[in-house]
Amino acid sequence: MLRLHVNAFDYLILAIYFGLVVTIGVMARRAVATSEDFLLSGRSLPAWVTGLAFISANLGAIEILGMAANGAQYGLPTVHFYWIGAVPAMVFLGVVMMPFYYGSRVRSVPEFLLRRFNPATHLFNALTFALAAVLIAGVNLYALALVINALIGWPIWLSIAISALFVLAYITLGGLSGAIYNEVLQFFVIIAGLVPLVIIGLHSVGGWSGLQAKIDHTKLGAAAFSTWGGVGTGNWTNPLGDWIGIVFGLGFVLSFGYWTTNFAEVQRALSAKDLSAAQRTPLIGAYPKIFIPALTIIPGLVALAIIPNLGTPKGASYNDAIPLLMGRFLPNGALGVALAGLLAAFMAGMAANVSSFNTVFTYDIWQTYIRRGRRDRYYLNVGRVVTVVGILIGIGTAFIASGYSNIMNYIQLLFSFFNAPLFATFILAMFWKRTTPWSGIAGLAAGTIGAAVMHFAGYHIAYFYPHQVYDPTHATINAQMVNFYGAIAAFVADLVVTVLVSLVTQPKPVSELAGLVWGVPDPNAPDPASVPKPVWWKSPKLLGGVALGIVLVLSIIFA
Amino acid sequence: MSETPDTGAEAPQSAAAKLFDLRVLIGGLFLVYGVMLTVAGLFTSSKELAKASHININLWMGIGMLIIGVFFTTWWRLRPLRRDPPQPDATGTGQ
């Protein structure tokens, strides 16, 4: 029984939170006078704000319920989504790639492709990104409505309408500043909501060792506590498959593709007030990312230990792990805070996608191809209208998500089609001057096709089934592993086609690549010697190195 | 894009400097929540205590949130938002 016993005290906590959400939008409205104020926060925000927003933008449906579900289903191997599958890419974005993005003053990731490649590449990326963004906004909206329906009993349509209305209010008023400020606030509220579940949950099962003992008696067994066990190729037993898929598919292709080229993330860094703050944005975000798995995987495992039949046809679904624990443990008050955090997380997951969708649509599609050369005021209004339209499309696509039982797999599927080839294109674009304009679109198209082909072929390959035995019903397929291999296929297809097309087509003159490619500095950029050197603890290399070091130590401890 | 939109002489100035300080709101929310939960924690029933594995979670959460609230308001008081001097290409907007 999922229904929570919410009382007036909890509703008061929720009302205060949602009042503040709208207040942020109203107050941020004063700071919007230009389209860049609305779509990029006027590039004015401090690093701690953009850094926490960077991590919050990803702290939506995926993190909270999906990762707790993975925790209950797979155990500690779920940390691969956080450690190898996020932190190295964040460090790479901050240390290596941000100078190209922020230094070239592009206003979006597609705009980088326009300047580096050609309009065809740009349009392909802008359209696929915009499509993915509204789809994922819809996923978050639908997930939110399901949770509200299960927990407090509101009808699905009402939840969708009300939460979309709140998101609409604070983004159309406050623009990206409204979205980012709410993401930072949401970060603290969701942490405050999850910490009690971890503390009470662990206490109730007798601490970490008690949890291990209890999990030993479940079907997951002791394997739940080994992150790198059973990843040998040929006869993998790890729930995420073999190490090739985890290291190259998840850790390299999917992770770098998402964190370094997904505009919903990169946009947070572009809104920072200077290059130093932009570089530190993903690095500051990396530190909470390292420790968030404790807040999602542990509740997942506790739920598996104490809730009978979790994840079986007779019992509740894995996705219900966190709501079940909330109902089981939290008294009124703490329950209200946890509920506020959960709802806020879903809204922020939607808002991040809408606020990046409106920027790409306004600047990259409308201003570039449909109505160019108008006054800035015109594009500001376009941005506002597009925000409303994006949310309406999100509401419509919310129902597409209902066809898939595991939200995580659905979003991973989207990533592997759209995002996986991107990193191959970007890495060649930034580090190989010879990469030609037409190789961009060719590589991206090949990569997307590669991902799709691998996805559908994977279901007919015995290697992707447990014990490597083919199941004609496809029911036992290791979907994560197919996604990882699909990403590898996309990356390889993109890389090969980009290089081949580059070798037979005309490259851009080097003068047009200034500031966009490694080794071709922008002559208009300020002299590096004249820019004041940030204090030592703000050094991107130091911040990134320490984050990687912590991940390495934790990976060894929990191997 | 290579070409900048023709914004003419009346190009609007960025108002980003008018953005309020988020630390006030974070601090304020956590102080309010902290007081609410701490007070609720002082009146926790034994039934609620048993439900939460004998941890008075409202009290502990309330105290924890008060500490976060004090941290953000203190940070805001000690290091108020400093307006950077206007950039040469974007003169200040009324601050």
Short description:
The complex is a heterodimer of chains A (559) and B (95). With 559 residues, chain A is mainly alpha-helical.
Provide an overview of this structure.
In chain A, 60% of the residues are buried. Chain A has helices at 8-28, 35-40, 47-56, 61-74, 87-103, 109-116, 119-152, 156-204, 207-216, 243-261, 263-270, 275-306, 321-329, 334-370, 376-397, 407-418, 420-431, 437-458, 479-504, 540-557. Helix content of chain A is 69%, strand content 0%. The radius of gyration of chain A is 23 Å and the shape is globular. With 95 residues, chain B is an all-alpha fold. Chain B has a domain at 20-78. In chain B, helix 1 (22-42) packs antiparallel against helix 3 (57-78). Chain B is elongated and about 65 Å long. The interface between A and B is large, with 58 and 44 residues.
Whole-Å distance between the termini of chain B? Answer: 31 Å
Helical stretch count of chain A? Answer: 20
Shape assignment of chain B:
elongated
Q: The CATH topology of chain A, please?
A: Sodium/glucose cotransporter
Based on CA atoms alone, the radius of gyration of chain A comes out at: 23 Å
Strand-and-helix sequence of chain A, N→C?
HHHHHHHHHHHHHHHHHHHH
Core attributes:
A: 559 residues, mainly alpha, globular, B: 95 residues, 52% helix, 0% strand
Layout: helices, strands, pairs:
The complex is a heterodimer of chains A (559) and B (95).
Chain A: H1 8-28, H2 35-40, H3 47-56, H4 61-74, H5 87-103, H6 109-116, H7 119-152, H8 156-204, H9 207-216, H10 243-261, H11 263-270, H12 275-306, H13 321-329, H14 334-370, H15 376-397, H16 407-418, H17 420-431, H18 437-458, H19 479-504, H20 540-557
Helix pairs in contact in A: 1-8, 1-14, 3-8, 3-11, 3-12, 4-12, 5-10, 5-12, 5-20, 6-7, 7-8, 7-14, 7-15, 7-16, 7-18, 8-9, 8-12, 8-14, 8-15, 10-17, 10-19, 11-14, 12-13, 12-20, 14-15, 16-18, 16-19, 17-18, 17-19, 18-19
Chain B: H1 22-42, H2 46-51, H3 57-78
Helix pairs in contact in B: 1-3
